[in-house]
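1st attempt posting a full record on here, be nice pls
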Amino acid sequence: MAAAVTHPLVAELVERHQDTLSRALTAITARDYWSPYPEFPKAYGENGAAEGRAAFEALLGRPFDVEGQPTDGDLVAGEASPYGIELGVSYPHAEPDALIDALGAARPAWAAADPAARAAVCLEILARINARSHEFAHAVMHTTGQAYGMAFQAGGPHAQDRGLEAVAYAYAEQTRLPRRAGWTKPQGKREPLEMTKDFTVVPRGLALLVGCNTFPTWNGYPGLFASLATGNPVLVKPHPRAVLPLALTVRVAREVLAETGFDPNLVCLAAEHEGAAVAKVLAVRPEVKLIDYTGSTAFGDWLEDNARQAQVYTEKAGVNTVVVDSTDDYKGMLANLAFSLSLYSGQMCTTPQNLLIPRTGVRTDQGDKSYDQVVTDLAAAIEGLLADDARAAAVLGAVVNPGVLQRTVQAAGGEFGELALAPRAVTSPDFPGATVRTPALVKADADKPDDRATFLAECFGPVSFAVAVASTEAAVELLRETVRTRGAMTAAAYTTDPEVEAALVGAALDAGVSLSLNLTGGVYANQTAAFSDLHGTGANPAANSAYCDAAFVANRFRTVEVRRHS
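the predicted structure (as tokens):
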């Protein structure tokens, strides 16, 4: 990790973070469990939780200053906590021209920095964010609706893991070629041809990060740190309902950049007024060369079609599917599925939506189970998991999106089909004003055109479909068709039959979706681990990229060669 650096703090950071970067580089190759960021709240000190809460509360009801960033003097506000508390935070507003000019002026020195220096600065940003994980957890909780435990882990250490993973891939790809190489070509009896060739990493240009409402840090950090580590300035455009977590991120990044002698305007915040649609304006600016986006399929497709001047990385949406053929742990299967369908009220891009169950029944360690028995038992498992309101609130979190809430109303009214399990309102003991709903489980028939049209459309949130299919073979084909036509971030299956397993793996490879088999313990289909699991594949309509692989970082820079005779 040797680097040519000028600022003394950068040199110190290169040394300080060398071991973390080296271990991250090993981890992305070994693919075993590893993380430098503890996921347990108590690891952050005896007073860490109280101090983090106090820091969060100190942000409420006042303007959020981003010192030194361009502003037109106006303020942007409008976030509302799904838990019913008053936030009252406002953010500086700036016109796109001013932000783009500032980012452009900051770019040259950062682009000229050594990849090792950029990696070290990024790791220092992550280290400082990690130290404030409790504060970030409250910010994530009250803008996304995640329960505190999930907000702490997914919004904190797990998001930081994904950021570090992107830095590791970025460093590996930027240093894959030597900075200088000698070239000698023999010429027989004549003197050999000799040349010296220099290879220089050249960043693409300005990067735009379009944040999402549900996972602003977990989905935001891969693109943010991949772009920054490869030498590109980053304009962070948060979702209007989830500004605070990314605003805090921008503030920390700017502090570190300033301390290390770089222009803090390498990272700027683009807060927008309600209905301003500034992402559409920024996305087609000629200065914007990279775009990272997580959110609806409609806007993701628009970016891919219209932001032609930029390399666009999208994670959109899909219809995640589970095939239930057979199991040797029926109780464990039901418990695993119940938790997967309930976690964060289904507001995850990886939550299973369609459960394909043969009409002929399912073989289990408790005997053969009919379609109706499986559906009834799964509904009972969900009810048992969420029977206590306090426990239910800790699993479900709060509903953050009005569209999600409306879909629960539609499901309860029978608009999606016959209910195997009706959703209910849950009262949070800590936040009486929170909007909390349990999942709905709807019966469907794959051979009925109306049912098929309903369950093959994405139904984001706590609504899932138990789909009766003619056979396991039909389920495998429906899985393949669903991924190909609708996209999926994940797929899962349960089978004890090696031939069925082979067919499922073949369908997953053919359609381009990652597959989880026979999950009955503490790993769930809607969870992925940094440094080991790939989140998305980029091989089906749900996403055109994956967190994180070499393809996610390598096109954020190009390598320019200069050669001369020795």
